[in-house]
Structure formats: C-alpha cells, structure tokens
Amino acid sequence: MQKRILIVEDEASIRDMVAFALRKAGMEPVHAADARAAQLAMAEQVPDLILLDWMLPGMSGLDLARRLRKEDLTREVPIIMLTARGEEMDRVNGLEAGVDDYVIKPFSTRELLARIRAVLRRSQGDDGTGMVEIGGLRIDGPAHRVFAGDQAVPIGPTEYRLLYFFMTHAERVYSRTQLLDHVWGGSVYVEERTVDVHIRRLRKTLEPWQFDRMVQTVRGTGYRFSASF
Known about the structure:
It contains 8 helices and 12 strands. The protein is α/β, with parallel strands linked by helices. It folds into 2 domains: about 5-125, Rossmann fold (3-Layer(aba) Sandwich), CATH 3.40.50.2300; about 130-225, Arc Repressor Mutant, subunit A, CATH 1.10.10.
C-alpha cells in the first residue's frame, strides 16, 4: 500500500523537491506550509510519516512535534525533523520532543528517502506482536497497546519498541550499541545518545504508575529491565 507522507515545510522549492522524490519512490506526498495547514491535513487523513521543518512561521516544528505526541490521533506517527540546526543540543531537544530522526539541511533526496524507509521499517517492524506481562505492566502486541493494570498507557512508537524489547529480554543488561542493533535495527543514522533520550522518555511514560523503576541503569555498562528494585 502506498505510504502517505506529510511534508510540513514553508519553503515551496523544498516541498516540491521532496514531493517529486517521494512520488518517484512510490509514495504519496501531502503538502503543508505551516503548523495549521499540517493539522488540517492530519484531521482529514493521518499520514504514515511526517517530515517536519523546525523553522515554521507561527508555531515552530518543535512545538508542533510536542503537540502531536500528546494527541491520541498522532501519538504514534513517526516524525523526521528537517532542520539546519545540527548542534547536539538541538538534536537532543528534538528527540525529547518526540522526533524519531533528523535530517540536516542541505540534504540529498537519496539520503532523505533512506531515512524515511528506515523509520517506516522501525515503526512497522515485526516486534511487538506477542503478549507480555511483568509485574502488572502488560503489552498487548496484536493491539499494539500497553497497559498498567487495566489502564492504557499512552506511548510513542519508539518507546513501545524499546519497552517490548526490554520486557521480552528482562533481567539482562544491554549496552547502548546492543539496544541500537536490536531496537533500531543497527541503522547508521542513529547515534548512541539517542538511546539515552528514549530511555528518559520511556521512564517518563511509565512514571505515573511507578513502573519507571523497572528501567534500570547499570553504571558503566548500559540498561536492564527488571521487576526487582
């Protein structure tokens, strides 16, 4: 099935270039010049992935990403940020806002398509298809949902994959590199620092039910998921 990609970019030349590349790759591009137009497009039909420019008129791409991650309709839609801001702190801020990957301007359409395919593979991977329960925290793989007791836990796509891996490999310690290989598929586009950001986001997601304590840091080695704390 053709993937629907929402391009949120205020520069028409970049929108047109990206849209052309997406159509050639067999994907369906949808245009939006600002956050308001993007929200209207998503209300009409939720895309499979969002390409989001950081510097938008009105609401910034970073603020829009935060808003999308809070809404049920768009919480699980993968987001790739398009930005000229390549500093580490900028990337961390984007990841903490819920962005799944970064493409630094100027970029080639070949690189962009590779990242889109990688993020789509990660968000629609084979993991998360079983039923797992540890200490009152439960994953319903077929429904792609997480429950704390009887309460549904709102969770983003990357945190879901990370939690599923942890819960199916409980009590074992994994380094950042190993987590990248298992959860992100060893993508060359993802940095080790990304793991730390998503660990923080996963803990914040689980904190209201006090399950954040299950995600444990093993000093000098990596992370472990354990019901013993």
